[in-house]
Write a structure and sequence with these properties.
Family: Belongs to the ubiquitin-conjugating enzyme family.
InterPro entries: Ub_conjugating_enzyme, UBC, UBQ-conjugating_AS, UBQ-conjugating_enzyme/RWD
Strand content: 15-25%
CATH superfamily: Ubiquitin Conjugating Enzyme
Organism: Kalanchoe fedtschenkoi (Lavender scallops)
CATH class: Alpha Beta
Distance between the termini: 37 Å
Enzyme class: transferase
Function: Accepts the ubiquitin from the E1 complex and catalyzes its covalent attachment to other proteins. Involved in the formation of multiubiquitin chains. Signal the protein for selective degradation.
Helix content: 25-40%
Order of helices and strands: HEEEEHHH
Length: 169
């Protein structure tokens, strides 16, 4: 193991211990496999008073060997219908984009990944994303169009996702 992956491993172990000692409302997190600190299983509870309320959405958070210098990827394995989630479940929010200037010019460098982010701040950002979708730069164009133009259809699709997530418990 290189020194950067060793540092990443120690940092992730510390974040896991901190979350075990001081759980945060709205989600739970643990390792997918006890032998690998780089892949986490996260369950996000649909935020109250949102379309996702009552859902239990599972995701995998995969950290690179050079964490915290590079962001993890987060992918829902539960069915998810949201403008900022790709059809394959991958979450698209600014803080998960590589640090520095946005090659497309949509985001400020200050909105992108910085090493100060923790598992907690990432998941809280995803919960916030569920509460207020950004349809300006959607990952799922179809969901974004539906969110803008056919809100009732969007709500129906999300409530199906919520029901499915409850059945999976």
């Amino acid at each position: 193991m290189g020194s950067s992956s060793n540092q990443a491993s120690l940092l992730l172990q510390k974040q896991l211990r901190d979350l075990s000692k001081n759980p945060v409302d709205g989600f739970s997190a643990g390792l997918v496999d006890e032998t690998n600190v780089f892949d986490w299983s996260v369950t996000i509870i649909g935020p109250p008073d949102t379309l996702y309320d009552g859902g239990f959405f599972n995701a995998i958070m995969s950290f690179p060997q050079n964490y915290p210098n590079s962001p993890p990827t987060v992918r829902f394995i539960s069915e998810m219908w949201h403008p900022n989630v790709y059809p394959d479940g991958k979450v698209c929010i600014s803080i998960l984009h590589p640090p520095g200037d946005d090659p497309n010019g949509y985001e400020l460098a200050s909105e992108r990944w910085t090493p100060v982010h923790t598992v907690e701040s990432i998941v809280l950002s995803i919960i916030s994303m569920l509460s207020s979708p950004n349809d300006e730069s959607p990952a799922n164009v179809e969901a974004a169009k539906q969110w803008r133009d056919m809100r009732d259809e969007f709500k129906k699709k999300v409530s199906r996702c919520v029901r499915k997530s409850q059945e999976a418990l």
